[in-house]
Amino acid sequence: TKVSYPTAFIDMANLILKFNDVHTKLAAGTSPLDAFIAENQIDLAKDNDKVQQAITYNTEATKKAEESAKETQLFNNVWQPVVKQLTNIGNYLMGIYVNAPRKTSDWGFAIDESPTTAKEVNTKIKLGEQVVLNGVVIGSTIKNTGNADIHIYKGKKTTGNPIIVKPGDTFGVQKGFSIMTINNPDTLQPASLTAMRNK
Fold it and tell me: How far apart are CA 149 and CA 26, in angstroms?
């Protein structure tokens, strides 16, 4: 059997105050702790003051932490939408200047021209939906790995006549198709495909 001490600060502080209250209410010289306190030169009055100070400091620190958390949330609320919009604008400019990406730097964006590694990426498309693929490697092939036709459009819009790729067939990626929109017109089953894309 042993004493079970609280782990939370405020519980420990209250325990010290409770113990001190019990001790000081005893008649002088009747506490079983008198000898121990004297031998170890313990000043309970000073300890009591220190506990009160610690409670005050902890209350202030907790309040500041709560205020800091609120400020952080307010910061995120106003900042994150701006960052998202800026990212979308940068990506949009890269789409406009797909053949001359350095022009994006005219708008203040830094362009990373370090070599990229192409990777085969599997993509699934839900019934009747479409996806936009960026960074598709020119000269590579797209393979329809599903059981539904896929319709391929150049760029980010489904305008004009699509290139239709049947299940199991492939499409050789031509110049101008590094960004493409792929539509799954099937309303009964999802579509899937593989494409080499720069990461």
Answer: 90
